[in-house]
Structures are given as structure tokens and as C-alpha cells.
Amino acid sequence: MIDTFEVTNKIPSLGIYIHIPFCIKKCGYCDFNTYSGLDNLKSDYTNAVIKEIEGWGQKASQCVVDSISFGGGTPGEMPAEQLSSILNAVKKSFFVLENAEVTLEANPGTTTSNSMKSFVSAGFTRISFGAQSFSDRNLKFLDRIHAPETISASLDLAKIAGFGSINLDLMYGLRGQTLEAWDRDLKTACELNPDHLSLYNLTVEEGTPLYERVKKGEVTLPSDDTSADFYEHASKELSNSGYVHYELSNWAKPGHESKHNYGYWTWKPYLGVGAGAHGFLEGFRFENIAHPGAYIDASQKGSSPESVILKREYPGLDVSVADWITTHLRLIKGFEEGDFYEEFGIEIEVIAGQILFELCEADIIERFNSAIQLTPRGRLLHSEVAVKFLIYLSGLDLAKYAGKV
């Protein structure tokens, strides 16, 4: 049973993430909360999402929304009128800024010109295409349903429709991928001149078909060192093409950085709406019921947005501090020590001085003036850095600081 939660005026603005869990086909590497073959649920799911939005609007009507992101799954495969009705519900339930960033994830080749125009008319300002690769061989390995040539066609249609910002996702560290092949993907992407590029190293997640294939020895992926070479090469290539590296996995033309994702990296509060969505409000994190059928059922039986929440937690100070530091370190510019103090009321040197010193000595973190950021070497080791901070902080007696948070 979830206690009723009221949003206070401590949250002047927030982002909203809306999860659309439907896909035409689930890729073998994907461990996201996505499902294929459930198109019959889309109408009821839309109604449930709108109900959740309206419920949160009653609790947080004083909050200003400056970013909205539809992720999944593949939101672009939903009927345009259904996504438009969800977006309209947000606008009716909250005060949405006129210049709010509204992002839609889509597949190349399957989102039609008319749909894109409808999305722009409804208020979507940014579209993100899961291109992944310009190699037919790689796309087949990843179980993607589009052909390489549809990527440029979809990007052109998005520009014509009027999207103000366009992102392409690319993946590296694929089976049999060489640095030369990765370079071709990067050059092809830059020739298309999207406003933003997100580059992801293929990770093998337990429970996915890819995990089983790797475990059985059917698939061999490039080594970590090779993937690091891919990453460093991409950073140089994109810099030469006018893209600014502003977050570990993200590059943008000036002015096209993702506002919504930037909120995640700077610990901004956000609502997570839809099946399996996560939210972060006033120190507590929550997670909704994952399966869309169960989510719909809980929505129909309940009378508040808490009805669809599966669990929530208030992390301890050690977890919160570790999460704040490592999340901010995803930004290339890092963070200011004063920002840490403003959040926790504690000097970072007092609570984490020893581990910061050790990481600086190891050329993983660098400090200058009052800024703390990862070194180029440290960017390759962010996951390890996150674990180190959590272990270090969990070993301290932080009770004496708890009252300051």
C-alpha cells in the first residue's frame, strides 16, 4: 500500500517522462520494459496514462514543466492521435513552458511523414531515431527492423515536418565491428548533420537473448580495450565535425543539448508516468507496475496516481551522496563543489575528501578551482567510479550528517 504523497512548493519545476512499452519487435540485446504483440492494449493504456497524468496534476499543479520525454519501447509506433491526447493531458494538468522540450523516440523507416507532421502540430519539438548503425549486417545482428537507407529518409522527413532538434542513436562494440567500420558509421552520421548524437557501447544484460548467446559462446564481442578505442575515436571525429561532447554518451551542436536528460544528470525532480516508469520527487524514488496489462488493471481499480506505483524508497544519505556525485560526473564539465554543498549542506571535502584524493592520484578525477570532473581516462571508468563511491560512503558513519540533508 502506497501512502498518499503531496508535492510541495519545494519543486518549482520538473521534467516528465512518459513510458510507452510497445514495440513491433523486441531486440535481442534490450532489457528495457518493452513488449511486442500487445497492440490491443494501446487504447486502454493511453487512457491509463492520461488518468495518471491528471492525478499527478492535482497533486503538483503548482509545478512548472520544462521538459517532456516519451520513451520506451517505441513511442513513434503509437497512433499519433493517442500520443497527442497524452501530451494534451500534460498541458491541461500542468503549466508547461512555451519553450518546453518535448521529445519523441522513433524507429527510422516506420514513422510516416503524416505522423511526424501530426506530432509537431501536437507540440513535439524533438525526435530521437534509434539508428544504431548504417550497416545492414549490424542491424540484422541487433534485430533492428529498419534498413540503413531509411535513416536518412526519416531524418529528412523530420526536418520537413518541423522538428526543431533531431537526434540519432548509434551503437559500437558490436560483433565483428572494426574501427574502420565504426569510422564509416560516424562519418555517415555527420554527413546527415543531425543536431545531436548519442553513442552507446553494446552491453550484455542478463536475461536477454544476447546474454544467452554470449554465454553459450555463439557470439563474441570486442574487448573492453577495443570499445575504449571506439569511444575515443568517436570523441575526436565528432569534435572535428562541430559537435560538443557535453555528457559521457552525448554530443550536440551548440544549443541542442537534451534538456530533459540534463535534468537526470543534475538531480532535477521528474515524474515517471506509465508502466515501469521511474520517478524522483523530493528525495523519494518510485517505480510503477511494469507489465502494461497489470498497470492498466491497477489504474482502472484505483483513484490516484499512487495506485500504479509498485514500490518507492527514500535512499539513505550514503546512497544519495554517491548517486548525486556519480550522476553529476556524467557531465563532461563535472560539477562545482558549491552545488554539492547547496544540496546536502556538507562540504564535499568533509564527506568524500579521501576517495577524491585517491581518484585524483589515479588520474580518474581532476580538480581545479572548485570544479570536479572525470579525466579522459576516467570517462572510460565511470561505472567503476560509481561503485567505488558507494562502497566508500557506505563504510562511513554518516548519521551525524543526516540532519543537514
Which terms summarize this structure?
405 residues, alpha/beta, TIM Barrel, Arc Repressor Mutant, subunit A, 2 domains, 3-stranded antiparallel β-sheet, 15 helices, 17 strands, 41% helix, globular
Topology at a glance:
Blueprint: E1 13-20, E2 22-23, E3 35-36, H1 42-59, E4 64-72, H2 80-93, E5 95-106, H3 113-122, E6 126-132, H4 136-141, H5 149-161, E7 165-172, H6 179-192, E8 196-201, H7 209-215, H8 224-240, E9 244-247, E10 250-252, H9 259-265, E11 270-273, E12 278-281, E13 284-288, H10 292-301, E14 309-313, H11 317-328, E15 335-336, H12 337-344, H13 348-361, E16 365-368, E17 371-374, H14 376-379, H15 382-394
Parallel strand pairs: 1-4, 1-11, 2-3, 4-5, 5-6, 6-7, 7-8
Antiparallel strand pairs: 8-10, 9-10, 12-13, 13-14, 15-17, 16-17
Assigned CATH class of the largest domain: Alpha Beta
Major sheet size, sense and barrel closure: 9 strands, mixed
Question: β content, as a range?
Answer: 15-25%
- Into which percent range does the helicity of residues fall? 40-55%
Low-confidence stretches: none
- For the record, the count of structural domains works out to 2
- Please work out how many helical segments DSSP would assign: 15
Shape verdict = globular
Query: What is the CA-based Rg, rounded?
Result: 21 Å
Compute the average pLDDT: 93
Tell me the strand order in the biggest sheet: 9-10-8-7-6-5-4-1-11
CATH topology of the largest domain: TIM Barrel
The CATH homologous superfamily of the largest domain: Aldolase class I
Question: Would you count the extended β strands for me?
Answer: 17
Termini distance? 27 Å
Task: Specify the structural class.
Answer: alpha/beta
**CATH architecture field of the largest domain:** Alpha-Beta Barrel
